[in-house]
């Protein structure tokens, strides 16, 4: 089924999912509605207009010192010096226009195989990984917390499991089969040493929530065909 937003057909071929394509179209239409974007503008102009739109209509609260301290106290494992993991991965890259369901199916089938026969990991990485690390059997070496994209970071640092992780790790680059071979816990850092980092993490989380709510408001006002986006009943902005 084709995707339409307020009667306008959406080209989903360049997006990882129909939902993301629909969200982009919602934002484009809202920017045009507010005279931030001209009809027929190119992709660069659309991206700039959407940035202006979000800056105008999405309010992201600054975390207070008290909120930062509470977060730090509740998540001490996140703030350690010298914390490292030794990890390997196999990347199934997702790029615009690629058939995402088919790529996911191949990755899931290989994950099942490697969970039963982990000794095949190096060979499969050399054969199939879209990451340069595939030439080294998927070896990523020692990773510090914060050195990878957030989704990958969370997968390898949260928890205590060793070996091949039971599920695919989905990041902006695609689907990863990940093996954690060693964990080095490190030493706890005092709050004063990581206060700025805590504030940045809370700000990023607040931005993600605010953007999600804003999109749900737009979806609640829109006529959507061929895609389902969770709608919000009340507006985020007046």
TrEMBL record:
Q: Name one GO molecular function term.
A: isomerase activity
List the InterPro entries: PPIase_dom_sf, PPIase_PpiC, PrsA_foldase, Trigger_fact/SurA_dom_sf
PpiC domain: residues covered: 82-182
- What's its EC? 5.2.1.8
Q: Which Pfam families match?
A: Rotamase (PF00639)
Q: What EC class does the entry list?
A: isomerase
Task: Quickly give the catalysed reaction.
Answer: [protein]-peptidylproline (omega=180) = [protein]-peptidylproline (omega=0)
PROSITE patterns in UniProt: PPIC_PPIASE_2 (PS50198)
Keyword hit for Hydrolase: no
Specify whether Nucleotide-binding is a keyword of the entry.
Answer: no
The family assignment reads:
Belongs to the PpiC/parvulin rotamase family.
**Name of protein:** peptidylprolyl isomerase
